[in-house]
Every structure is written in structure tokens, then in C-alpha cells.
Amino acid sequence: MKNDKIYEDLFLVQKRAKRIFILVGLLFIFLILNFWKIQILDHEKYWERSEANRMREILLPFQRGLITDRNGTILANNKSSFRVSLIRENCEDYEKSCRKIARLLGIEEEVLKERIKKYESLPLFKPIVVKENLTNEEVAMIKARKLELPELIIQTEPKRFYPFGSIAAHVIGYLQEISPEELEDGIHPERRLGDLVGKTGIEKEYEAGLVGVDGQLVEVVDSLGRSKGEIARLESRRGRDLTLALDFDLQKKAEELLEGREGAIVVLDAKTGELLALTSYPNFDPNSFINRFTSEEWLDLVNSPEFPLENRAIRGLYAPGSVFKLTMALGALDLGIVTDQTTYFCGGTIRIYGRPFSCWLEQGHGKVNLYDGIRHSCNIYIYQLGKEMGIEEIARYARMLGFGEKTGIDLPGEKDGLMPDPKWKREFRNEPWHPGETILVSIGQGPIMVTPIQVAAHTALIANRGSGISPHLYKSYSQAGNKKMSSPHFSKNYTVKIDQANFEKVIQGMWEAVNKEGTGRAAKVSGYDICGKTGSTQTISTKKLEEMTEEEEEEVKTHSWFTGFAPREDPKIIVTILVEYGGMGGETAAPLARQIFDLYRKKYDRQKSS
Amino acid sequence: MIDRNLLKNIDWILIGLLLLNSMIGVAFIYSSSHYLPGNYFLKQIIWIILSSAALFLFLSIDYKILVAISFYFYIITIGLLGVVLLFGKLVAGARSWIKFPFFQVQPSEIAKIALILILTYFFSKYRKDYISWGKGLLGVALTAVPVFLVALQPDLGTALSYIPIFLLALILAGLNKKTFVYILIVILTLGIAVWNFGLKDYQKKRITTLIFPGQDPLGSGYQILQSKIAIGSGGFLGKGFRKGTQSQLRFLPARHTDFIFSIIGEEFGFMGILLALLCYFFFLLRLFQSISLSRDRAGVYLIFLVAMMISFQFFINVMMVIGLFPIAGIPLPLFSYGGSSLLTNYLAISLVLNVKMRRFYNV
């Protein structure tokens, strides 16, 4: 009885399974009908699409974000340009194609093959750029040969264009093709072989915000490469526009002032640390770099003895010279070594540690107090401070006041500079520190090295009576654009522990240097309270200088510094100028600073000072 | 080990059909990937040999014993799924692989066998004409655990493929119409919930693309279109072996795995498809015919669930390549490249052979 039940049961489940299998069979018939429709009824349609039609993916390149100055003047733009690309898959005979194309485009066959070889890893159907920046004639010529050379396609792409050429070139930087190393590093995760990326300057620093996303177009083409219509289109998204803190007028002025010289000018907003101008001269035209193929111009520039590609404002290492006397004065006051009334006698030379050290003024400055020391930039006065302070204290104050470390400016490649001390000398030169070196370092000579941007940040620290800023170019990103970018932070707003009164004393000295017939008098703008300090730095060692004749000595010019701010109360602008081999700071750099101060006052500070 | 009398009862025809379909797969894996590094077709052949060995080894244990210990098997599988979630290898955004020195396995595939065995264990003991609520809910719980674990990987395609195994087990156990309607309602509600909270954007896109193919022509719509062009352009007789001109298809991801049927359609045309479908149909038919040869309920359940597991994946995959189903990442059993899936299917067939082989034994 029990067994019977089991068998009955089995029959029931088997019946159910059979019903399900009927469904399976029906599904097979349904599938066959579907394949019948696709392969027999619609065969013609699909055959055409597969045979006469190949799909082509075309990249729709994105527009890079614009770069403007603080007032909206466009410094980096995009304009459309034509380029011709080769689709290897469409070549009937690759060798023959290369020969024909080389002749048509006027490129050597070897060069052409080299270019293509670089992109070998791309799939065969991807276009490879063989020539860009085509002229209209070239475009017409290629189009006329369409039937003969279906493997060539012409594409337009937005190309970076810098309307003012070399102005602010070092700030903005330029684009070049992504290098294999960068591709491997993965610093540009979304970029591919053949893409252009920012190589220096703002273009590199803010690459992530400026780039957009490429779009894509899929179209059907016949065997001759003629488009038979779009299948799909994904629009590109443009990058974010970037507003810089730069003021175009000041920037332009700064570049004009340096023309024919080598040097750097840094103009800072004293309160915010925004860079109103940052120049390095000689400069270059970044438009000539935006090229996939190494151009003659590029090689010329890289190999030029004047190093036009170097951004001297952030990468140039110079001895600070007398500019360093501000650090010395602040340190000595803070340590209580001198008061503003302490005087020393300057007789033109002095023997310290058994060695003669001279002032720049042969006949000497006579009795000198702190204000005179800064005003006349008296070496003898500072030597005494240096001797009293010692190298460790000097180094401590120099670091506190911004030397020997990066300012953190938003440009790639900034240099640290060097604040030497005995530890450094032991480590890097394997020699003990000589006391005489302390005396040299105290007037900003010897191994001490600073960059113009450090001097500018240092000046801002003094102008703000001890509160530091961090210099930066970034102002804002546009609202619209590809991905959301958060503003970078420049919060290096720190205060140094030096009494405000001591800053006032040093500032008094700086004010006198410009306004009371001091070394900086050439920077004076009447009616504008400018405070400043000049510097002239020997470019070769004293020893060598001693071996020279007087005429030769005349020939060797010093680097010329001026750094200053205005107005004295509630400072607004910082100007730092370095002219290589410019001679005395007061003669070369200070008059240039005057023109910057003058322009700034006319443009921004007129109401207040008049 | 195995009784000689038992060997006589092995269904060699079924094994022949199994190998035939596997070899068709190898041929098209070769055609679609011979220009790629990796020697996929050779690897597939090695997997077929290993899986065949596993098939015979698995035969040596009486299926009744397998069903009896199915609970332990199930627990171990669930443990493996947990392990893979924690320590699995990340491939294409999902953690579904356990890596060994020379190969890697997907526990989510093996889990299908465990599920079939445990459902058989619980449902075949029940001898009424219609299933009770308690048994039904037990089945739901047993199925839900692997579904959730695999969905977390996240591999939604595989996770969803467990559900039909359970549903079909229910149908076999006997569902009255009312219950069937309730279950449909529950599934629909769950579906809406998953759509809103569980699906990733790309998965939603795949489904909407199916309904509105114009919406995402560069993504999954592009794949469907490419697949249809390949199949459609094959016509009646196809373009010949290894002569598929759809060079674009080379940019189709997973053409030697999920889109292998498109290659058959392009290179051998409608006749090729018909032949392939026929081979598959006979294979499935042989499985279903085996049901009536089973001597007990457990055997019926085992064969039926194995047959349905394979049929379900087969239909989903084929409908996928002709644009009738969203691209779900479900391979074509036996045809597609992939060791874990192959091994699972061979073990499943081993269960069927096991039941048939022992039908006269020990009654």
C-alpha cells in the first residue's frame, strides 16, 4: 500500500516535469523563429551593415578649461585646428600607403613610420595622428585623394592657444604629449597615448580641473571610408575655467621692464598672498610647444644658454645679498643684541677673526645705528650683528622668516633654496664651519641661496608685521565644467614670534632706504609710502675677485635685488625684483620697482593715497 | 569502487552529447580567440578532461548518499561563499573568485550543485501531492542565503540564476494556482525593491537599454547591436569558420565567453545555429527523458533540477545575444569558455548519470 503511494507520487511529479519540458520545446521553436527573422528575413539589412559598413569610432576631443587673469582677460584659449590621422585597418598595403602618405604630406617616410610606431599598441581601427595643424590647402589636398587613400581621415580638434604668446608663459606653462613615463605612473588615469597634458606651470598644476572628458561618435562608414551616418554620439564635456589672481596689466608691465635682461619680478597682494604678477625673463612662446612632434624651436629653447624655460621666480637660486640684512636686523633686535639706538662705527673695512671685511662704501658710513644700517645697507653694521648672533641663530631666524624652504606656491618645480649652517656643511661638504663664513652669510653672501618668490613671501611677512602669507596664483574655478573641483587651500597664514615693535623698527629703516635718500631711493613714488630694501650680490667668490684687475672687476656685474611693499601702513602690494648681472640693486632693480608701484597705485590704490 | 554491473548502465549517449556540445564550444572559443594571447581553447580542453575525470569520480558515490549528506555540502558551500566575499580576488569589480596557484574557481558556480542537492533532500522526502507553506518557506530560506551572498559580490546574474532552480523545484513539488499567484506577487514586489535599492546604475541601464535600445548605444546597446549584426550578417550559411568579418566584434568584451553564440551565427549562419540548437535540444531531451527512468523521487528531482539549471542558463544566454534579454553575464553552459562553469555542469550531469545508473540497483 505504502509502495503504491510512492509510485503514484512519482508519476505525478514526472507528469509535471514533462509539462515543463513542453515549455522548453516551445522556447526552442521561439528561438529558431527569432534566428530566422534575424538571419533570413533581416539578413540583407545586417549584411549591409557588416560588409559595406564598418563602424568607426571617432573621438570628440573635449575643450580644455580657459585660463583668465583676475579681470577676465583670457590668457589660455582654444581654437580649432585640423589634423590628419591614419587608420591602419583600412590600408590595403601598409608599405604602399606609407609611401603615398609621406609624399602627400611632405614628410619623410622614415619619420612617418617612426610616428606610427609610437602608437603600435593601439587597436588597428583607432586613428593615429600623422600630421597636425594642417593648412586649408593641405586639407583640400587630402580630401581630394579620398578615394585613393581611404585610410586617411581628417579630424578637427580644439587646440590650446595663448593669445598673448609669451606673456605669463612661465606661469601658465604649456601642453605636450603625455610621455610613456607619465602613462605608466598613472598620474593622468583617464588620458591615453597621444593626448596632450600640461607639462609645466598652471597647465600642469591644475590639470585635473582643466581637463574635460572626451566624447565619442560612432558612425557607419563604407569600404571607402565615407561616412554613412551616425549611430551614436556622446558629447564631450569641457573642463573647468580657471581664474588666476594675476593682473594682466601688471604682468605685462613686469615683462616689459625685464625685456633685454635676465631676471624675475614677483608682485604679491600683501594681505592674501595672491600673485598679481610673476615674471621670469627671458620667456618663450608656449604656442610653439603644443605639438605632438618635437619641434626645432623646442630643442633650441632647451639648449639655449640663457635657459628661457627656467622659471627664475621659483627655480632661480640666488644669494640674497643685502636683502638678508632685514633678517639680521630682526634677529638681533629680537635677541636683544642691539636696540635701535645702538651704534657701530663704519670706517669702510673691519677686521673680524683676523680677516679684513669691507663695506661696499670704501670711505665708510661713519657712526651707524639700526635705521642707517638698513637705509645705507651698511655691511660693517651687519657684520657686528652676525658676529654677535652666530650662525645657528642666524639660520634659525632665516628659516623662521621664510628662507630655506618652499613657499608652497601652486606651481610645479619650486626650489627649496638653502640656508647653510654647520650641520649642513658637515653633511654635504664634509668640512667644519669657519667663523668667517658666518660674517659672509650675515650679509647674504656665501652658500646661502634664496628664490625670488621666497624673498617676496619674506617681504610680505615683514610688511604684515609678522604674519605670513602663502603666495598662490589660484583665484577660482568656474561653476560649470566637467567634475566638481574643490578649491585648493592656501592656509599658511602663520605668525612669527617676534615683537611687532621690532618689525616697526625694521620697516622704519626700509622706509628711510626709499624715502630718505637711502639705497632704495630710485624706487620712490612721491605721495606713496614705499618701504624697501636693495641688494647686490657678488656672482663670483671674493677670492677670485681679488685676483682680478680693476677693469676686470668693473666687468663682473652683481645680481641686482629690490624688495619692498607699499603703503607703509596697511600694506597692499609686495614687489620683488631680481635682475641677473644687473649691477647695484639701487641702480637697476629699484627703478623697475618704482614703475610697478606707480602702475599699481594708478590702477588700484589711487583714492586712498591721494 | 563501482560495480561492473553499474558501468553497463551508464548512459553513454548522454555522455556523448555532453562531449559533443563541449567540443562545439571549443571550436568557437578557438575561432573567437585564437588571435589573443592566453590559449583559451587549450585551457578549455584541459578543463573538459579534468571535469570528465571529476564526473566519473563523482559517479562512484551513490546519489542517495549525496542527497543524505547534502546539508553538510550546503554548509561548506555557504562557507566558501563567505570566504570569497572576504578574501576573493577582485575581477571586473566583483569578488567571485578564489585563487589557487595554477587556476581559480568561482564558488558561486559550485553552489548550484549544493542547492540542487539540498532542495532535493527536503522536497523529495515530502510525499503529498501539493507542497505545504512550511516546506515552501524552508526552500525560500535555503535559496535566499546563496542568492544574497552572491549578490553581494556583486554578481547579480549568477545570484538570480539560483531562483529558477528553487521555483522549478516548487512546481515539481506541486503548487496550487493560488500559491503560484502569491509567489508571483512576492517576486514582483521584490523585483521593484531590488530595482530601486539593489541595482547599480549600469545594471539598470542594461535593462532599460533592452526596452529602449536607442538610449545607450555606446554601452550595452552597442554590444547588442554588434552581436545582432554579427548573427544577422551570417545569413543562411554563414561566412565560414574563422572568417567572421565583423572585426568590430573583436571589441566586444567576452566574445569567447558570453557572446560565443554570436560567433556561431556569423560563421555558420542559420544552418549552423539550427544545428547547434538541435545538438543542445537533444542533450536537454536526453536529460528530460531520464526523468521517467528514475526509480525514486530524489532521482526525479535531481534530474529535473539539473536539466532546468542548464536550460535556464541556455535560454537566458541565447536570448541575450539576440537582444531579447538584458546582458546579464550568464555564460552558455558547455559552450562558453570558463572552467568553473564547465566543472559545475559536468558534476550536474554526473548526478543524472548517477540516478540512471543505479535505477535497477538494490531495489
Structural write-up:
- The complex is a heterodimer of chains A (610) and B (363).
- Chain A is an alpha+beta fold.
- Chain A is built from 23 helices and 20 strands.
- In chain A, strand 11 and strand 12 form a beta hairpin.
- Chain B contains 14 helices and 3 strands.
- Chain B has helices at 4-8, 12-33, 40-59, 63-68, 70-87, 107-124, 133-151, 156-173, 177-198, 201-211, 220-234, 260-291, 297-321, 339-357, and strands spanning 89-91, 94-99, 104-105.
- In chain B, a hairpin with a 4-residue loop joins strand 2 (94-99) and strand 3.
- Chain B starts with a helix and ends in a 6-residue tail after the last helix.
- Classes of the chains: A alpha+beta (610), B mainly alpha (363).
- At the A-B interface, helix 1, helix 2 and strand 9 of A face helix 8, helix 11, helix 12 and helix 13 of B.
Q: How many structural domains does the protein architecture of chain A include? A: 2
The main pleated sheet of chain B reads as: 3 strands, antiparallel
**Separation, N- and C-terminal Cα atoms of chain B:** 20 Å
Side-by-side strand order of the widest sheet of chain B: 1-2-3
Assign a percent range to the helix content of chain A.
25-40%
Structural class of chain B: mainly alpha
- Count helical runs of chain B: 14
Task: Give a quick set of tags describing it.
heterodimer; A: 610 residues; alpha+beta; Penicillin-binding protein 2a (Domain 2); Beta-lactamase; 2 domains; 6-stranded mixed β-sheet; 5-stranded antiparallel β-sheet; 23 helices; 20 strands; elongated; disordered N terminus; B: 363 residues; mainly alpha; 3-stranded antiparallel β-sheet; globular
